[in-house]
């Protein structure tokens, strides 16, 4: 989707592929790593992933075939612990933890809605 984000420590770049997979790349050695998400099977498609301020978590827009829509999710940086933030008919995309306190507690969403935690 053309969106990539540097990790807070500057070591990795997080991005979604054109085919909807989640990846990170380590620019120093060019190593690309697929980040697996436990979606419960079926078709899924990732858009606009972003890091938490401390780099331990990821927020992303995720399409699941079983729901038929894009919703916001968080996961640990390794892809484990996938958890939904939203479950609405709205198209939620480009979430960002932000940089001002309490950044770890709120996410801003591109359409102006907010999702807490």
Element layout with pairings:
Layout: E1 4-6, E2 13-16, E3 22-26, E4 31-34, E5 44-51, E6 57-64, E7 69-76, E8 83-84, E9 106-108, E10 114-116
Antiparallel strand pairs: 1-2, 2-3, 3-4, 5-6, 6-7, 7-8, 9-10
Task: Provide a descriptive summary of the structure in words.
The protein is mainly β. It is built from no helices and 10 strands. The chain has strands at 4-6, 13-16, 22-26, 31-34, 44-51, 57-64, 69-76, 83-84, 106-108, 114-116. Strand 7 and strand 8 form a beta hairpin. Mean pLDDT is 83; it is low at 112-117.
Short description:
With 117 residues, this protein is mostly beta strands. Helix content is 0%, strand content 41%. It starts with a strand and ends with a strand.
